[in-house]
Amino acid sequence: MERVTTSEAAERLGITPDAVRSRLRRGLLAGEKDGNTWYVFMDSDSQTVKSSSRATVNDSHMTVNDSQTVGEDDPALRLAVLEADLRGARALLTYTQDQLAAAREEANFLRERLTAQEAIIAQLAESQTEAWRRRDVLEAQARTALPEKAEKPVTWWQRLTKRR
């Protein structure tokens, strides 16, 4: 079994490196992450990839990808496949835990933002209530400051005819 980079695996499989990384994350391909680089476990003699989700161990033999059977007489190969599956499962677990931590961090951030926005809304509601109260006071003061009905000015023809 050969350990190759995602770019090499993509070239051999005829897909993009992003598709290989996506399959590694989902556990469809066996591989491991070493530092910042993902590696895929491939058969040395062919273009096939070891699948982490298709390997099963029975009493008398091991089936890989539902088509290849490896006998009990080669425990080293059996161990290598199981170790690759374990590394793939651990990588998937690590990735999932990282995603969960990121989601929790984002939820906490959004919760803090929501709390801050609620405080701002409450402050604006108080300000609006105070503005309405001030408006009512000013309107009342304006009504008292204005004189009652002022008499209409008398025009010259009303004086002449003495109509008012």
Question: What does the model show?
Answer:
This protein has 164 residues and is of the alpha+beta class. It is 58% helix and 15% strand. It has a domain at 2-113. A hairpin with a 3-residue loop joins strand 4 and strand 5. Mean pLDDT is 80; it is low at 48-71.
Produce the secondary structure layout.
Blueprint: E1 2-5, H1 6-13, H2 17-26, E2 31-34, E3 37-42, E4 56-57, E5 61-64, E6 68-71, H3 75-145, H4 156-161
Antiparallel strand pairs: 1-3, 2-3, 4-5, 5-6
Helix pairs in contact: 1-2
Which labels suit this protein?
164 residues, alpha+beta, 58% helix
What's the count of strands? 6
Sheet having the most strands: 3 strands, antiparallel
Through-space gap between termini: 117 Å
Q: Reading side by side through the largest sheet, how are the strands ordered?
A: 1-3-2
Low-confidence stretches: 48-71
Q: Report the mean per-residue pLDDT as an integer.
A: 80
Class inferred from helices and paired strands: alpha+beta
Q: Give, in order, the helices and strands.
A: EHHEEEEEHH
Choose one word for the global shape.
rod-shaped
Estimate the helix proportion, in percent. Answer: 55-70%
| Gyration radius over CA | 40 Å
Specify the number of helices: 4
Strand content: 5-15%
Short summary:
The protein is an alpha+beta fold. It has four helices and six strands.
